[in-house]
Write a structure and sequence with these properties.
Layout: E1 8-13, H1 22-31, E2 35-40, H2 50-57, E3 61-62, H3 78-84, E4 87-93, H4 95-103, H5 109-116, E5 121-125, H6 129-133, H7 135-146, E6 150-151, E7 155-158, E8 164-168, H8 172-185, E9 193-198, E10 203-206, E11 209-211, H9 218-229, E12 233-238, E13 250-254, H10 258-269, E14 274-277, E15 284-286, E16 305-307, H11 311-318, E17 323-330, H12 334-344, E18 349-354, E19 366-367, E20 369-373, E21 378-380, E22 384-385, H13 386-400
Parallel strand pairs: 1-2, 1-4, 2-3, 4-5, 5-6, 9-12, 9-14, 12-13, 14-17, 17-18
Antiparallel strand pairs: 7-8, 10-11, 15-16, 18-20, 19-22, 20-21
Helix pairs in contact: 1-2, 1-8, 3-5, 4-7, 9-13
The structure holds cytidine-5'-triphosphate.
Cytidine-5'-triphosphate is lined by residues 197, 258, 277, 279, 281, 283, 308, 310-312, 326-329, 341.
């Protein structure tokens, strides 16, 4: 999955012949899973039509503060657009626009939005070779870089003038790769490896029956997604679940029983920086598993259970550099029980959810958590979606790392 998936990309197109290539750039962004909105300068419309770009981006294309074709139309709000964007990409960026950006000029909608944008700004220059080399253009580049804007250097090749040299806008796929690489290199969990356990475990009674629980696996899967989005390599040891996840940074190790989950977790633990045990592991399993299907004979039937291995506690015993995080699902004496688990299992912090809180627990899309640190300090969070809860947990984790 691309780091651009789910991101809001604002694309600013200025008046250079390379503008026609932005049709491909928009396709690349959309294919990467991004949401795209486009601003065109009036001059850029000579090179590519707004209709093509609005069709490809699935959004209206804006180019002025008002839409002259529609007398009822509202003022186009450059501030809102600037805030909407996760990244602003100006491609092609002409010498004229770059010099205006560098000097704070805001005489068109694109420039006003540039001045309002708080997000990272990328610019891909496109111009003739002598313009590209000109001292004034170079001064624009360095001023913009000093603002924190990121330049996607132009390539060399045949230019619209017929001359050959530097100044050709980077190809759309190069722009995509450049931005993806740049974002990935800045992710806070890059170079970190995280083990996450998720879902229930099934403990066999006979070949067709098992003891299980209602865990959906959602919390663990949301954690895995959020960690990968922050750049981590994730090993997701997952019990049986309907959840699906496809992300090149996440390796799913499917397991069924607590014993399988124990073995898989120990196989990876030594190589990870963090382990988060979010699975609802069975505490007991049938002592003997019948080889054949058990027949219905007696009025009552007793299964003798024995304890499973506590995966989290076993990791707590051997942990070295790893940061270890557990969950506690409680119905009563919540804080006391969770603090007990935190100490007993040698954790760095524990995430408590109480079944007394409406909206928290198994199978729900929401959760309400309290994080308890090793020094027993508490942070309580409001009821949120499990996706947001995952972000809160990882934000806390980043503080600890
Ligand atoms: N856990 C585990 N292996 C087990 C049991 C629990 O790794 N065999 C982990 C869970 O993934 C969770 C934490 O331990 O992170 C606490 O699980 P929980 O079921 O709340 O606690 P238990 O230790 O099983 O205690 P109890 O069921 O008595 O509350």
């Amino acid at each position: 999955m691309s780091v651009l998936s789910g991101k809001n990309i604002l694309l600013g197109i200025t008046g250079g012949i390379a503008a026609y290539k932005t049709t491909y750039l928009v396709r690349h962004f959309i294919k990467a899973g991004a949401h795209v909105k486009i601003i065109m300068t009036p001059a850029s419309k000579d090179f590519v039509t707004p209709l093509t770009l609005s069709t490809l981006s699935k959004n209206p294309v804006l180019s002025s503060f008002t839409n002259e074709d529609d007398e009822n139309d509202m003022w186009n709000n450059h501030v809102d657009l600037g805030l909407w964007a996760d990244i602003f990409v100006i491609a092609p960026a002409t010498a004229n626009t770059l010099s205006k950006m560098a000097s704070g000029n805001s005489d068109n909608f694109l420039l006003a939005t540039y001045l309002s944008a708080k997000c990272p700004v990328y610019f891909a220059p496109a111009m003739d070779l002598d313009m590209y080399k000109h001292t004034s253009t170079k001064a624009s580049f360095s001023t913009l870089k000093s603002f924190g804007n990121i330049m996607i250097p132009a390539g060399s090749g045949e230019l619209a003038s017929g001359l050959i040299g530097e100044g050709r806008m980077a190809e759309p796929e190069e722009i995509l790769a450049f931005i993806e690489k740049d974002i990935a290199s800045k992710l806070p969990l890059r170079n970190k490896k995280i083990l996450i356990t998720a879902g229930p475990t099934y403990e066999a009674i006979d070949p067709v029956r098992f003891i299980g629980n209602h865990s959906s696996g959602k919390m663990g899967y949301e954690l895995a997604k959020a960690a990968a989005n922050l750049g981590a390599e994730v090993i997701l040891v997952s019990g049986p679940t309907k959840e699906v996840l496809s992300n090149s940074l996440v390796t799913i190790i499917p397991v069924v029983s607590a014993e399988d989950m124990y073995t898989a977790s120990h196989n990876y633990f030594a190589s990870v920086d963090v382990a988060i045990c979010a699975a609802a592991v069975a505490d007991y399993k049938p002592k003997n598993v019948a080889e054949q299907k058990i027949k219905k004979k007696t009025e009552t039937f007793t299964i003798t259970l024995e304890k499973t291995k506590d995966i989290l506690a076993s990791l707590g015993e051997i942990k070295k550099q790893q940061l270890l995080v557990g969950f506690a699902l409680e119905t009563n004496n919540e804080l006391e029980n969770a603090k007990g688990k935190l100490k007993r299992k040698n954790l760095d912090f524990i995430v408590l959810n109480s079944l007394q809180d409406k909206g928290a627990g198994f199978g729900k899309t929401t959760n309400k958590i309290t994080i308890i640190d090793a020094d027993e300090s508490l942070i309580s969070f409001a009821l949120k979606s499990k996706k947001e809860v995952a972000t809160d947990i990882l934000t806390h984790l980043l503080d600890k790392l």
